[in-house]
Amino acid sequence: MEKPKKPRKRRSATVGRRLWARLTRRWRLLGLFEIDEDHEFYNLTVMMKEGLSAALQSTDQPAPDELIGDDYNKVENQVHKGFEMQTFAGPVFGSLRCSMGVSERDYQTSLSSAEPFLQFISNSKSKADFFLTNDKCYFLKTQSKREINFLLSNLKRYTEHLEKYPHSLMVRFLGVHRIIIHGDVKKYFIVMQSVFYPDERIKARYDVKGCEVGRWTDPTPRDQQPIVVLKDMNFEGQHINLGEQRSWLVRQVEIDTEFLRGLRVLDYSVLLAHQPLHLDEIDQNHDLATLVLRTTISVDIENGQTEQEPPKIPGTLVEEHSALLQSEPTGDPVTGSEPADIQPLAEDMVAEIPLQELPRRHSAELKEFQVQNRRLLPEFKNPVHVIDGPELRYFVGVVDIFTVYGLKKRLENLWKRIRYPRRAFSTVSPPAYAHRFSQWVQSHTK
After folding, report:
1. Cβ(142)–Cβ(128) under 8 Å?
2. 282: pLDDT confidence band, cut at 50, 70 and 90?
């Protein structure tokens, strides 16, 4: 009698399932979860990919000076099997992507890749769902109808701010969409550039609002090494060490918060992460050939640059003038009373970075670079959100700009003033929030 054969296939399948379960647990510990066929959001993300791929094929990319008023109100609707995809202000976001040097082919490849999206396991209080493209280059985040309407109603002001200050720290929104499933379920979502890209070497991540109440996160034990976004109180006792670039960061935060103050918003954050610089990266930052290349990517090549006029690096804020907000405002940043208006930045606060190796530009062009508060961008992916210090590389971006100071937030401010007397909490008036936010950056940089 022949001996029964061993169930190799079954054992192989069992081993495969165990291996997959182990990898799944590892993804969870890392704060990211691969959205496979068994995931609750699998069907949604598949539809998002299909809809985005078709939408991008039909989107024009006009230059910023070619946009017209109707482009900001344009809504494109595409019907697919089982769902519909709406794209809002497609030409505007296409123009924004173009100005950032993002090719439509690369953008489409990231968003519609055959590789699954990743779910970001956030410790945020937000009810939004967060997805990452598999290459971790772009974030997709679900938003409420109110938040989307707020963004679209202020889209022109947002794009004008980025045009005026090309090296702004504001997160780059690259698309706004709505997916309608079977005519019933409706989800709005935005696509934005990931501030923490690429993240392979990042050692710590922070979400900072400039206050103390509710701004502590228990760090996860080191042996597990998950992705945990820490908060303000976790950062106390530390500094962002930027050396010569400190004054640039301080001023740009003042510029961006003044813009957000004009929108009457609060509760925004600065995302902050850092990783150590390798010795070759430190040496490369001072290499002449690298400086020339970095200068080239730091200026707007379309604005009159010629071969006879090589680009000049932007200026930085003179150190003695960088503390624009050091004087106390007339209001109280803790309780949220209105401070006096922040004075606009004077153009004479700016000084040219001495770099004798590079040829001079016309003074008018140099002045324009200074007024726009440009800096020498690093030769690195995602350069707008990356700033190199003497020893660390920092990732910095301002996010979550949708909370308007309406009646609900005013009542919350009154309640928290009673609940947390003389303590710094997030729900304060937009001017007080902007001032306190800028002061935090100023006091935690060197």
Report:
1. yes
2. confident
